[in-house]
Protein backbone atom coordinates (compact mmCIF):
# COMPACT_ATOMS: atom_id res chain seq x y z
CA UNK A 1 0.00 0.00 0.00
CA UNK A 2 1.26 3.44 -0.90
CA UNK A 3 0.13 6.78 0.48
CA UNK A 4 0.14 9.91 -1.66
CA UNK A 5 -0.55 13.58 -0.92
CA UNK A 6 -3.24 15.08 -3.13
CA UNK A 7 -4.18 18.78 -3.14
CA UNK A 8 -7.31 20.04 -4.85
CA UNK A 9 -5.97 23.45 -5.76
CA UNK A 10 -7.77 26.81 -5.43
CA UNK A 11 -9.33 26.60 -8.92
CA UNK A 12 -10.80 23.15 -8.16
CA UNK A 13 -12.44 24.42 -4.96
CA UNK A 14 -13.58 27.73 -6.48
CA UNK A 15 -15.09 25.96 -9.50
CA UNK A 16 -17.01 23.55 -7.27
CA UNK A 17 -15.16 20.50 -8.55
CA UNK A 18 -13.74 19.15 -5.31
CA UNK A 19 -16.53 16.60 -4.87
CA UNK A 20 -16.27 15.30 -8.41
CA UNK A 21 -12.53 14.88 -8.18
CA UNK A 22 -12.74 13.16 -4.79
CA UNK A 23 -15.40 10.87 -6.27
CA UNK A 24 -13.02 9.78 -9.04
CA UNK A 25 -10.50 8.59 -6.48
CA UNK A 26 -13.20 6.90 -4.38
CA UNK A 27 -14.62 5.16 -7.43
CA UNK A 28 -11.17 3.96 -8.46
CA UNK A 29 -10.78 2.32 -5.05
CA UNK A 30 -8.45 4.71 -3.23
CA UNK A 31 -8.90 4.82 0.53
CA UNK A 32 -9.10 8.25 2.20
CA UNK A 33 -6.65 8.39 5.12
CA UNK A 34 -6.93 12.14 5.89
CA UNK A 35 -8.64 15.20 4.44
CA UNK A 36 -9.00 18.89 5.32
CA UNK A 37 -9.83 22.30 3.85
CA UNK A 38 -7.09 24.86 4.52
CA UNK A 39 -5.58 28.03 3.10
CA UNK A 40 -1.89 27.45 2.41
CA UNK A 41 0.26 30.32 3.70
CA UNK A 42 3.40 31.60 1.98
CA UNK A 43 5.73 29.77 4.34
CA UNK A 44 4.04 26.41 3.72
CA UNK A 45 3.87 27.06 -0.04
CA UNK A 46 7.60 27.75 -0.12
CA UNK A 47 8.28 24.47 1.68
CA UNK A 48 5.97 22.53 -0.61
CA UNK A 49 7.26 24.00 -3.88
CA UNK A 50 10.90 24.60 -2.84
CA UNK A 51 12.17 22.40 -5.71
CA UNK A 52 10.76 24.96 -8.17
CA UNK A 53 12.21 28.08 -6.54
CA UNK A 54 14.50 28.89 -9.48
CA UNK A 55 11.80 28.44 -12.13
CA UNK A 56 10.38 31.52 -13.87
CA UNK A 57 6.83 30.55 -12.86
CA UNK A 58 7.66 30.23 -9.13
CA UNK A 59 6.25 33.61 -7.93
CA UNK A 60 2.99 32.99 -9.79
CA UNK A 61 2.83 29.44 -8.47
CA UNK A 62 3.09 30.70 -4.87
CA UNK A 63 0.45 33.35 -5.58
CA UNK A 64 -1.87 30.70 -7.10
CA UNK A 65 -1.56 28.07 -4.39
CA UNK A 66 -2.05 30.60 -1.54
CA UNK A 67 -4.90 32.53 -3.21
CA UNK A 68 -7.90 30.60 -1.87
CA UNK A 69 -8.67 27.45 0.16
CA UNK A 70 -7.54 24.01 -0.97
CA UNK A 71 -8.56 20.47 -0.05
CA UNK A 72 -5.57 18.45 1.13
CA UNK A 73 -5.87 14.68 1.29
CA UNK A 74 -3.82 11.61 1.96
CA UNK A 75 -5.04 8.78 -0.26
CA UNK A 76 -3.89 5.19 -0.19
CA UNK A 77 -3.81 2.42 -2.80
CA UNK A 78 -1.58 -0.31 -4.14
CA UNK A 79 0.85 1.62 -6.40
CA UNK A 80 -1.12 4.71 -5.36
CA UNK A 81 1.45 7.36 -6.33
CA UNK A 82 1.72 6.30 -9.97
CA UNK A 83 -1.98 5.52 -10.31
CA UNK A 84 -2.96 8.97 -8.97
CA UNK A 85 -0.48 10.72 -11.30
CA UNK A 86 -1.94 8.82 -14.24
CA UNK A 87 -5.47 9.83 -13.22
CA UNK A 88 -4.34 13.49 -12.98
CA UNK A 89 -2.86 13.57 -16.49
CA UNK A 90 -0.19 15.85 -17.95
CA UNK A 91 0.61 19.07 -16.08
CA UNK A 92 -1.76 21.33 -18.01
CA UNK A 93 -5.29 20.69 -19.20
CA UNK A 94 -4.52 21.87 -22.71
CA UNK A 95 -2.18 18.89 -23.14
CA UNK A 96 -3.64 16.33 -20.75
CA UNK A 97 -5.48 13.37 -22.26
CA UNK A 98 -9.28 13.24 -22.11
CA UNK A 99 -10.29 10.87 -19.33
CA UNK A 100 -7.76 12.36 -16.93
CA UNK A 101 -8.75 14.92 -14.29
CA UNK A 102 -6.74 17.74 -15.86
CA UNK A 103 -7.73 16.61 -19.36
CA UNK A 104 -11.44 16.59 -18.58
CA UNK A 105 -11.76 19.63 -16.34
CA UNK A 106 -9.13 22.21 -17.34
CA UNK A 107 -7.78 24.34 -20.17
CA UNK A 108 -5.31 26.70 -18.48
CA UNK A 109 -1.54 26.55 -18.89
CA UNK A 110 -1.10 27.86 -15.35
CA UNK A 111 -4.02 26.69 -13.20
CA UNK A 112 -4.25 22.91 -13.17
CA UNK A 113 -6.68 21.78 -10.46
CA UNK A 114 -4.66 19.18 -8.62
CA UNK A 115 -1.31 18.27 -7.06
CA UNK A 116 -0.16 14.70 -6.51
CA UNK A 117 3.13 13.44 -5.05
CA UNK A 118 5.50 12.16 -7.73
CA UNK A 119 7.64 9.67 -5.74
CA UNK A 120 7.63 7.81 -2.41
CA UNK A 121 10.21 10.30 -1.04
CA UNK A 122 8.11 13.29 -2.09
CA UNK A 123 4.96 11.67 -0.69
CA UNK A 124 6.55 11.13 2.73
CA UNK A 125 7.87 14.71 2.84
CA UNK A 126 4.63 16.27 1.62
CA UNK A 127 2.38 14.25 3.93
CA UNK A 128 4.52 15.39 6.88
CA UNK A 129 4.13 19.03 5.79
CA UNK A 130 0.35 18.91 6.09
CA UNK A 131 -0.51 16.16 8.56
CA UNK A 132 0.73 14.70 11.82
CA UNK A 133 0.89 10.93 12.31
CA UNK A 134 -2.25 11.03 14.45
CA UNK A 135 -4.20 12.69 11.62
CA UNK A 136 -3.80 9.61 9.41
CA UNK A 137 -6.76 7.33 9.96
CA UNK A 138 -6.10 3.61 9.77
CA UNK A 139 -9.31 1.65 9.29
CA UNK A 140 -10.60 -1.45 7.54
CA UNK A 141 -12.97 -0.77 4.69
CA UNK A 142 -16.06 -2.93 4.31
CA UNK A 143 -15.41 -3.48 0.59
CA UNK A 144 -11.64 -4.02 0.80
CA UNK A 145 -11.78 -7.65 -0.22
CA UNK A 146 -13.67 -6.73 -3.41
CA UNK A 147 -11.40 -3.81 -4.34
CA UNK A 148 -8.37 -6.13 -4.23
CA UNK A 149 -7.84 -9.88 -4.50
CA UNK A 150 -6.60 -10.67 -0.98
CA UNK A 151 -6.78 -14.46 -1.35
CA UNK A 152 -2.98 -14.67 -1.51
CA UNK A 153 -2.55 -12.82 1.80
CA UNK A 154 -1.75 -9.37 0.41
CA UNK A 155 -3.87 -7.07 -1.78
CA UNK A 156 -3.40 -7.72 -5.48
P1 LIG B 1 3.14 18.55 -11.84
O1 LIG B 1 2.17 19.24 -10.92
O2 LIG B 1 2.42 17.93 -13.02
O3 LIG B 1 4.05 17.58 -11.14
P2 LIG B 1 5.49 20.30 -12.08
O4 LIG B 1 6.26 20.47 -13.35
O5 LIG B 1 6.12 19.54 -10.96
O6 LIG B 1 4.05 19.69 -12.49
O7 LIG B 1 5.14 21.77 -11.57
C1 LIG B 1 4.55 21.97 -10.30
C2 LIG B 1 3.43 22.97 -10.45
O8 LIG B 1 3.97 24.22 -10.86
C3 LIG B 1 2.40 22.63 -11.53
O9 LIG B 1 1.40 21.72 -11.07
C4 LIG B 1 1.84 23.98 -11.86
O10 LIG B 1 0.89 24.41 -10.87
C5 LIG B 1 3.09 24.88 -11.74
N1 LIG B 1 3.74 25.06 -13.05
C6 LIG B 1 4.58 24.18 -13.67
N2 LIG B 1 5.00 24.68 -14.86
C7 LIG B 1 4.42 25.89 -14.98
C8 LIG B 1 4.45 26.89 -16.01
O11 LIG B 1 5.12 26.76 -17.03
N3 LIG B 1 3.68 28.00 -15.80
C9 LIG B 1 2.93 28.18 -14.68
N4 LIG B 1 2.87 27.26 -13.69
C10 LIG B 1 3.61 26.13 -13.84
MG1 LIG C 1 5.78 17.77 -9.97
Notes on the structure:
With 156 residues, the chain is an alpha+beta fold. It has a single domain, classed as Alpha-Beta Plaits. The chain is built from eight helices and four strands, in the order E-H-H-E-H-H-E-H-H-E-H-H. The longest helix is centred in the first third of the chain and has 11 residues, at 18-28. The chain is globular and about 50 Å long. The termini are close together. The protein binds inosine-5'-diphosphate and magnesium ion. The site of inosine-5'-diphosphate (IDP) has 9 residues, from helix 4. The site of inosine-5'-diphosphate has 9 residues, from helix 4.
Task: Quote the beta fraction.
Answer: 15-25%
Number of helices: 8
Total number of domains: 1
Helix/strand/pairing category? alpha+beta
Name the descriptors.
17% strand; 156 residues; single chain; globular; 4-stranded antiparallel sheet; binds magnesium ion; 8 helices; alpha+beta
Q: Secondary-structure map with pairings?
A:
Layout: E1 2-8, H1 10-14, H2 18-28, E2 31-38, H3 42-48, H4 58-65, E3 70-77, H5 80-88, H6 101-105, E4 114-116, H7 120-130, H8 144-147
Antiparallel strand pairs: 1-3, 1-4, 2-3
The structure holds inosine-5'-diphosphate and magnesium ion (MG).
Inosine-5'-diphosphate (IDP) binds next to α4.
